[in-house]
From TrEMBL:
Binds 1 zinc or iron ion per subunit. It is an enzyme of class 3 (hydrolase). PANTHER family: IMIDAZOLONEPROPIONASE, IMIDAZOLONEPROPIONASE-RELATED. N-formimidoyl-L-glutamate binds at residues 157, 331, 333. GO terms for cellular component: cytoplasm. This is Imidazolonepropionase. Zn(2+) binds at residues 85, 87, 255, 329. It comes from Peribacillus muralis. Catalyzes the hydrolytic cleavage of the carbon-nitrogen bond in imidazolone-5-propanoate to yield N-formimidoyl-L-glutamate. It is the third step in the universal histidine degradation pathway. Pfam families: Amidohydro_1.
Length: 419
């Protein structure tokens, strides 16, 4: 039997617990469920109790001697961070494109010339399943050291049956073998592969008729994502793909309005997507439609910075009633980072989220964006014991001292994975 773990005397414990169990917007994004001199009792992989140190001392009075004690005096404690949007399974690297963009090329110039997503697709097709496993496991290790305990991951660097399945199987194996929880998304509609150039609708048919049934039969994904963007998939094609996915039980997500306004936010609301991603150029109508439909805005400020674009209007979205989540977008082209702490900092600096809103966006709302809010994203009895102990005293300091990894210790399912 493993010992219970008792974290006590946290300077500040941000539980993120609220009675209401739906994605948070407006004022609800600022309510962090703070406890001073906070304490958590973890056992059997779950949070058993949360409160002040005094409360837990009384509650577990006859079992205190059994526990492994962690003295969190002077430290902030939060739920494990959740990254709801990554392309973490990929082969190769694209550092030359970083230089090309600094020399003046745009993201779309590079992609249209056969680079970008197409370049990673070539390298991912060439990589063996074992190579992808090893490369992805290293990235997941890095996520853990940045306090991230749950990660969504997309296929989409295969764009043929064989390699899409290879990526999804890598995620399935890593879900079993790596401490991080990996949540799989099928994204066969990441781009139109080169061999279908000029025959875009045929690729959409192929995806709907050949790929979706296999992905669904093998239970390899929970979500279905589309890059709806001028020159990639039109809103009509995107709608067909997302609607077809729903018939197989896959929940829609959509890369929307990243480069140009293209009706992506409106489409997300129309098809009932759980989240819409990027949204740098989303229209006012689209944002209003998302607020109405309850679609979460998954915003990616590190991508905007890396592409030297103005970030999405996060402040305005929250004020308009949209629930906002944030993510690294970890991918080899437009955001090769695993640092959710940096993403929280950028959410404050470039999108004017408050420090409290940024923490909600990286925990509870991020969990909602991948349908995991009943398990992770807040510290409450019965939820997974995914906990981060930070080398700062409070959540404001976490966002204020930017660009530094303040993680001290991480527990995943009650097991210490970062010491
Ligand atoms: N925008 C589309 N897809 C990814 C980038 C993928 C890549 O460049 O390899 C994104 O979310 O940023
Ligand atoms: Zn993406």
């Amino acid at each position: 039997m493993t010992k219970p773990i008792w974290i006590k005397h946290a300077a500040q414990l941000a539980t993120l617990a609220q009675y209401e169990q739906s994605p948070r917007s407006k004022e609800a994004m600022s309510e962090l469920g703070l406890v001073e001199d906070g304490s958590i009792w973890m056992e059997a992989g779950l949070v058993q109790a949360v409160g002040t140190t005094k409360e837990l001392e009384e509650r577990y009075a006859d079992r205190l001697h059994e526990a492994e004690v962690v003295d969190a005096t002077g430290h902030l404690v939060t739920p494990g961070l959740v990254d709801p949007h990554t392309h973490v399974v990929y082969g190769g690297s694209r550092e030359r494109e970083f230089e090309m963009r600094l020399e003046g090329a745009t993201y779309m110039d590079i992609m249209n010339a056969g680079g970008g997503i197409h370049a990673t697709t070539r390298m991912t097709r060439e990589a063996s399943e074992q190579e992808l496993m090893e490369q992805t496991a290293r990235r997941l290790d890095s996520f853990l050291t940045h306090g991230v305990t749950t990660v969504e991951g997309k296929s989409g660097y295969g764009m043929n049956v064989e390699t899409e399945l290879k990526q999804l199987r890598v995620m399935k194996r890593l879900q079993e073998e790596h401490p991080i929880d990996l949540v799989p998304t099928f994204m066969g509609a990441h781009a139109v592969p080169n061999d279908y150039k000029g025959r875009e609708d045929e690729y959409v048919d192929h995806l709907i008729n050949e790929m979706l049934p296999i992905v669904s039969k093998e239970k390899l994904a929970e979500f279905n994502d589309v890059f709806c963007e001028k020159g990639v998939f039109t809103p009509e094609q995107s709608e067909r793909i997302l609607t077809a996915g729903k018939k197989y039980g896959l929940i829609p997500k959509i890369h929307a309005d990243e480069i140009e306004p293209y009706g992506g936010a409106e489409l997300a609301a129309k098809v009932g997507a759980i989240s819409a991603e990027h949204l740098l150029k989303a229209s006012q109508e689209g944002i209003a439609a998302m607020a109405k439909s309850g679609t979460i805005a998954c915003l990616l400020p590190a991508t905007a910075l890396y592409l030297r674009e103005e970030a999405a209007p996060g402040r305005m979205m929250i004020d308009e009633g949209v629930a906002v989540a944030i993510s690294t977008d970890c991918n080899p082209g437009s955001s090769p980072t695993t640092s959710m702490p940096l993403v929280m900092n950028l959410a404050c600096i470039s999108m004017r989220l408050t420090p409290a809103e940024a923490l909600t966006a990286a925990t509870y709302n991020a969990a909602c964006a991948i349908n995991r809010q009943d398990k992770v994203g807040s510290l409450e009895a019965g939820k997974q014991a995914d906990v981060v102990l930070w080398n700062v005293e409070n959540y404001q300091e976490l966002q204020y001292l930017f660009g530094v990894n303040h993680v001290k210790s991480v527990w995943k399912n009650g097991v210490q994975v970062v010491k």
